[in-house]
Amino acid sequence: MFRLIARRQYRRVWQAMNAHDYDAIIRRFAPDFRVTFHGDTSLGGTRTTRAAMAAWFDRLFRLLPDAEFELRQLAVDGPPWNTRIAGLFTLTATTPLGEPYRNVFVQFVRLRFGRICWYEVHEDSLRWSRLCQHLGSNGVTEAVAPPILDAVSA
């Protein structure tokens, strides 16, 4: 039963992402969370504070203003104190230059009693890096800005 509830909550969080309501996600974080987006790009790095996560989401939606996330596969396992989730996604968006963008990624999540304590995102980082370089060379400087980090992970 708990896995069914976790699945439903996870899908709701991604519905919020599609509405660009990242506050709904930040509210789900445990007090001691850790979020890592792999890759050496403006979105890369690890964050452990809500302020850094809000800044990260702001940047994401400036770089991909109409980002839409399609959850293609979902796996949930574990007890309430150590729930593990894996989601496979397709991301479609339009860049600030008006060009289409598409990528795939996997998100691994760990919940503790329904609160997000850890997640990592693994994507086609070469595709994202190439987009960031293209955007940067066309005047979108935030695409090539240093990652948003916080004092704990810097």
From TrEMBL:
Gene3D superfamilies: 3.10.450.50. Residues 11-117 form the SnoaL-like domain. It holds the Pfam family SnoaL_2. This is SnoaL-like domain-containing protein.
